[in-house]
Amino acid sequence: MSNLDWDINSLSLGIIPLDAHHQEIFQYGQKLCAYHEVTDSGFSEALSHFTKAVQIHFKAEAILFEQFKYPRSSKHIQEHTDFLIRIQGISKKLEAFTIDKITRYIEQWFTNHIQQADMDYVRYFEEHKILLSKDFFKTIDVKATSQPRRSMKSKTLPPGKIKSLDEQHREIAKVLAQIKDLRKTGVSEKRSLLLLPKIITMLEECGKYFSYEEEQMEELEYPSKESHLEDHKTFNKKIKSFKTTLTLHQRDISDSILVFLKDWTMNHILKKDREYKAYLHRRGYK
Ligand SMILES: [Fe+2]
Ligand SMILES: [Fe+2]
Ligand SMILES: [Fe+2]
Fold first, then answer.
1. How many angstroms separate the alpha carbon of residue 29 from the centre of ligand 2?
2. Distance from residue 260's CA to the centre of ligand 3 (Å)
3. Centroid of ligand 2 to alpha carbon of 61 (angstroms)
4. Domains in the chain and their CATH numbers?
5. Residue 197, helix vs strand vs coil
6. Is the pTM of the predicted complex or chain greater than 0.90?
7. Residue 220 CB: number of other CB atoms within 10 A?
8. C-alpha closest to that of 258 among 163, 187, 165
9. Which ligand is nearest to the Cα of residue 277, counting in written order?
10. Cα 197 to chain center, whole Å?
11. pLDDT tens digit string along 39-89?
12. What separation in Å is there between the alpha carbon of 221 and the centre of ligand 3?
């Protein structure tokens, strides 16, 4: 049995009003899953509520395509039409279907459509630097219910905050180069011990950029904020522990720092920071 869960990691477009639509559609879909038989009283009404939410969303996307001259609009709209025709056919011949069959079809269709067709227009907006402002969504009636929804923020962030991500990465790259230098054969432990406190201070400085990044994520309601912040906490803790080890034991820990920074680059900078950067671009920030 399908459960129609809207998963933020695989289904978010990064455009809050449209993500809210998709979530709402999935919620209406979940209500369908709660019935046992298509003949149960209320099921047909629930299916028509679901269809209404879908129609409102499709209309919003069509307006968006027209406004921003999305080139693959007719193919996309055809997919919407085909889906609505199929749902209409199902509603007319309900007894020929099971709830499982209907909800599975809805889940598969939406998952596939969002990940391919919808993501395609997101990429188009991104490539053409189209910023979907809060005002734009106000001009089209995209409300699927009377429930208050989160709005897309169009506030311009101070440029320093956006730049901080690149500055942070440059600093980490500098530290990595210095550490690699220390690892070269012939560098005495004495020299390493002399340079390591300076390197640790540089890493502590990098940690300070995190607060800008975190503030910005909060402001932009970044969906993967929590797991990103967990990584930042781990980074700060790790640097603190390097500092303690160095102060207490005065031993060359450049090897451990190198391993840690390589891992940080692979798993945070190249993955999570990249994802976040793509999100910023989708939201119109450079
Ligand atoms: Fe669509
Ligand atoms: Fe969509
Ligand atoms: Fe980060």
1. 15
2. 15
3. 7
4. 8-139 (1.20.120.50), 159-282 (1.20.120.50)
5. helix
6. no
7. 20
8. 187
9. 3
10. 37
11. 999 999 999 999 999 999 999 999 999 988 999 999 999 999 999 999 999
12. 15
